[in-house]
Amino acid sequence: VRRNEIVRVREERRREDKLAQLQAKIADRNAFVKNSRRASAATGLAALQRWAKRHKLAAFVTLALNERVIVCTIDQEAKAQDALLDGCYLLETDVPQGLMDAKAVDARYRDLQKVERNFRTVKTTFLEIRPIFLRKAERTKAHVFVAMLALKITRRFEAALHRTFGSTVDDPATITPDDALVALGRLTYLYSTDRNGQRHTHLPRPDDQQAKILDAIGLSFPLKAKAEKRAV
């Protein structure tokens, strides 16, 4: 049995989000019952109990009526008990313990996760390898080779962003690789022509977000204009 700390944190946040939603629903229902003589507090209580059960909160949440007010009681001990297995998973293998201990089994499993994640990145989520318009074997192999090089760049890109900005587990609003590409995509060439007919090409100065991303990945670019003679 092993524990994934990232999954544990995610499950804890999900549980707290559900509790916050439940408290908001209780407040809305109590306000509705208070402002309506014909509203049934018991009906609202039953609906909220079903909601709590459906979202797996019933093990440590108790809902009851105090006159016409719905009251929520949270059993902290039961809540802690419910969270004991957050992030835990079970690995089973037929490899003898003498050849591979539990730590090594978990390490190999995590390596397999990385391989699957790489395939997913190449195929669908980020690079979208699609050699569907290629017919010759050499061109298909070249397409896949370029995609694998792009995967290595993507991994370095993700690692640099993670070191600087953290992950979405630590901060859901952190900068992801997709966010970084969108931000950097706003950097476009600007062109101007002086009175002598020379055309100048230059880039705008990066904004704060773009500058942070460029610093994170260790890249910079010249801002000095480059003059080009106009073609006649």
Describe the structure.
With 232 residues, the chain is of the alpha+beta class. The protein folds into three domains: 2-82, no CATH class; 93-173, no CATH class; 183-229, no CATH class. The protein is 53% helix and 12% strand. It contains seven helices and seven strands; from the N terminus they run βααββαβαααββαβ. It has a three-stranded antiparallel beta sheet with strand order 5-6-7, with no helix packed on it.
Give the tally of β-strands.
Answer: 7
**Main sheet: which strands, in order across?**
5-6-7
Rg, Å, rounded: 28 Å
Mean pLDDT comes to 85
Q: How many domains, in number, for the residues?
A: 3
Shape: extended
Distance between the termini: 74 Å
Give the % helix: 40-55%
Q: Structural class of the secondary structure composition?
A: alpha+beta
Residue stretches low in confidence (pLDDT < 50, at least 5 long) are none
- Major beta sheet summary: 3 strands, antiparallel
The number of helices is 7
Beta-strand portion reads 5-15%
**What is the helix/strand order?**
EHHEEHEHHHEEHE
